[in-house]
From TrEMBL:
Keywords on record: Membrane, Transmembrane, Transmembrane helix
The protein, known as: Uncharacterized protein
Transmembrane annotation, as ranges: 6-24
Domain of life: Bacteria
Keyword Transmembrane helix: yes
Length: 271
């Protein structure tokens, strides 16, 4: 065999070995996304603390189990982006980024509802229609008499003798105190069918574009009720309820920054 042929075959062999080595390296390491996911899992497992969702404070496992720890001096502490990125779903990440806007703002102060306030909430049409609900991340609004909080609503879809499906979602809700007693009304977005039927018959007591209204107790100040609803003009995807001097607004989507900014704007409109 000539020298040139030997060199040629050696070169081909080296190229083949290099290719196989790189292929094996990729197979062992996985894709970039897989490596990043594995890295986050390992970091999460290695962490010796957890994040308190109410305050954003880092707690050791021992503190969390005992229920005793020293609260952070800064009430406005937020959950760091690095910790948010460790969450499993994009919905969870978006929710924490939205709540961070409240945590860091001086316009909102952490709050816990009293038993009497919870009783009022339990009697709303907005929340009582669910099979169950709870709340978290509640803040008192400093520029008006109101609150913003995150209700976690639960619906259970049961097919007798077959299966049971549970729907669970955390949303955004606002409670603002009004100056006048305005009766009791509940409003929700109209379906396409309801919009079509309204062409022939629209007998709602309250008129708000895109919404159907239900009258539970008529107000003596109908003009004032409509004036309040005008301040919500253009808002979509909400449930609205007025109970005497209380106005409740709730989103219908999982907590996100866009919905939170909408709710903050609506509060300033009505307050």
């Amino acid at each position: 065999m000539k020298l040139g042929e030997i060199i040629f075959y050696l070169a081909v062999s080296l190229i083949g070995i290099t290719f196989l080595y790189q292929l094996l390296k990729i197979m062992l390491k996985g894709t970039k996304a897989e490596r990043e996911y594995e890295k986050r899992i390992n970091e999460s497992l290695a962490d010796e603390y957890i994040i308190d969702p109410e305050t954003g404070a880092k707690l050791t496992l021992e503190e969390a189990e005992s229920g005793h720890w020293i609260s952070h001096d800064n009430e406005y502490i937020t959950i760091p982006e690095k910790e948010i990125e460790k969450l499993h779903t994009e919905e969870q990440k978006e929710a924490e980024r939205a709540i961070n806007l409240l945590r860091e703002s001086r316009e909102y102060k952490r709050y816990r509802f009293s038993e009497s306030e919870l009783e009022i909430l339990e009697n709303t049409k907005i929340l009582s229609k669910y099979d169950d609900w709870s709340y978290s991340d509640c803040f008192k609004i400093k520029y008006c008499d109101g609150y913003i909080f995150m209700p976690a609503v639960v619906l259970i879809d049961k097919v007798p003798g077959y299966f049971e499906t549970t729907y669970h979602e955390s949303q955004i809700m606002i409670w603002v105190k009004l100056e006048s007693n305005l009766g009791h009304y509940y409003l929700r977005e109209k379906t396409a069918t309801q919009k079509f039927l309204d062409i022939f018959k629209n007998d709602d007591d309250l008129k708000m574009r895109g919404y159907e209204s239900f009258t539970i107790k008529k107000s003596e100040n109908h003009f004032k009720v409509n004036q309040t609803l005008k301040k919500l003009k253009g808002a979509k995807g909400l449930e609205i309820e007025i109970i005497e001097n209380n106005l409740f607004l709730k989103t219908m989507k999982f907590i996100n920054v866009e919905e939170l900014l909408l709710m903050k704007r609506l509060v300033k409109n009505v307050s």
